[in-house]
Amino acid sequence: MSWLRNVLLGSIRARLLVLLLGGLGTLMLALFVLLDYSIDRQIFGRLDQTLLARARGVVVLLEAHPRDDAWQELHELSPEYATGGHTDFLQIWDARGRTLLSSASNTARNLAPPPAAVPANAPLFYDLRLPDGHRGRAVGLRFALPGSIDDATLVVAEEREQIDQLERHVHLALVSGVIGMGLLAALLSILAVRSGLRPLFAFADRARRRDDDGPDVEPLPADELPRELRPFALTLNAAFARLQAAVGRERRFARDVAHELRTPLAETRMAVELAGGTPPSPVLRDALGSIDRMQRCIDGLLALSRYEAGMDQAQMEPLELVELLRRALALASGTAAKRRVSLVSELPDECWIVSDPALLERIVDNLLINAAEYAPSGAVVQVELASRADGWTVRIGNPAPGLSAEDLARLGERFWRKSAAREASQHGGLGLALSVTLAELLGLTLRFSLAEGVLWAALGPLRPVVLPEAAGS
C-alpha cells in the first residue's frame, strides 16, 4: 500500500478527491441506511397497525357475542375469512393449544402459532409461512373468550408478498438513486477540484514561463492571483529578483574581466614575441604558451557570457555533418600527433542535418581537442556517427583511466579538473562548459558515460534534413 500512500501524500488533487469522495460516499451510505430503515419501518408499521386493528375488532366481536353468533357475524363483516382466499387468515387457540376457530381461508390447515408466549396486554408480531405457502405477517393477541376460564390466543395473518415487492422496488429506487447521486457527486467533485486548483496550475505555468524566458521577463502579477497564492508569488518574485541580480553580477563580472584583460594580454604577447628573437628561447616559448592558454580562457568566458545572456542566437540551416567532422579531425590531428594519439573515425559518405554550423563545429572541436589532450599517450580516440530513431548522434570516446563514475556529473563545470597535475594543461578549463551551453542553445543533449575505462561524449539528437517528396511520387 506504499504506492497509495505516495499518491495521497504526493498530490493535493488526489488528497482532495479522496477526502471529497470518501466523505460524500460515507454520507450517502448513511443516508441510504437511514432512508431504508425509515421506509421499512413505515411500511411494516402500517401493516402491523392494520393487523392489530383487525385483531382487536375480532376480539371485541368475540367478547360481545356468543361464539357461533360472533363467528357468523365475523364472516358477514369480513367475508375474506370465509371465501377461502389466500390474503387474510385467522385462527384461535385455547390455553392448551387446541384450535377453537379457524377461518375458511386456512383451507383446513393451521397457522403457525406465535414463536413465544403472547403477553397479556400487548400484541406479538411475527413473520410466518401461510397455509398456501406464501410469506405472511401475523399478530397474536390474548383475550378472554366468553364461557372459558383461561385466555384464548387469537392470530390474525395477512399475506406480505405485495409489501415485500413494494419494499424491493423501494430498495431498487434507493440504490439507483444513491448510485446516480454518487456518480454525479464524483463528477462534481472532480470538476470542483479541477476548478479550484486551476489558479494553482496557472500560477505554476506562469512561474515556469517566467523562468524559461530569462531575466528580462515581468514579475508574476500577484494582485491578479487568488489571496492564497499571493504570498507565494511575492516570495518567488523576490527570490527571482535576487537570483537574477546575482547571475547578472556574475555575467557582468566575467565579461568585464575578460574585456579588461584582452588588451594587456595582447600587449604582453607582443612584448614577449619582440623580446624572444628567432628562434625564441624555451622560457619565452613557455610564456607564449601560457599567454595562449589565458587567451583561450578569456575567449571562453566571453563566449559563455554572450550565449548565456541571450546575446547570440543559433542560426539553423542545412549542413553536411560528415564534412564538418572531417574538418574537426584535421584540426585536432596536430594536438593528437604531439601526444602520439591516434584519431579513428567511422563515418558514412555523407549526412545532412539541420543545425548552426559555427556553433556545432565549435562543440565538436572542443570535444575532439579535449579527448586528444586528456587521452593517455599512444591511446586511440574514436569518432562515431550513429543513426537513431530521433536523429543522428555524434559519439567521441577516449581512454580515461583516471576518471570514475562519480566524476561524470562534474564534467562541464567551469575550471574543473580531475587532477591538480593538469593545471599545466593547454586548456583554459572552459571547453566542456562552453560545449554544454552551446548544446543547450542548439536544443541538443551532451551526455558523458564511462564504459570499460573509455569516456564517451554523446551529442544529439541531430535532426536530419527532410527532403520534400518529388511531385510525381
Automatic annotation (TrEMBL):
Keyword Transferase part of the UniProt annotation: yes
UniProt keyword annotations, A-Z: Kinase, Membrane, Phosphoprotein, Transferase, Transmembrane, Transmembrane helix, Two-component regulatory system
Catalytic activity: ATP + protein L-histidine = ADP + protein N-phospho-L-histidine
Location in or out of the cell: Membrane
GO molecular function: kinase activity
Superkingdom assignment: Bacteria
Enzyme Commission number, as recorded: 2.7.13.3
HAMP domain location: 194-248
SMART domains reported in the protein's UniProt record: HATPase_c, HisKA
Span of domain Histidine kinase: 256-471
Membrane-spanning intervals of the chain: 12-35, 170-193
Xref: Pfam families: HATPase_c, HisKA
Major site of localization recorded for this protein: membrane
The protein's name: histidine kinase
Organism (species): Dyella ginsengisoli
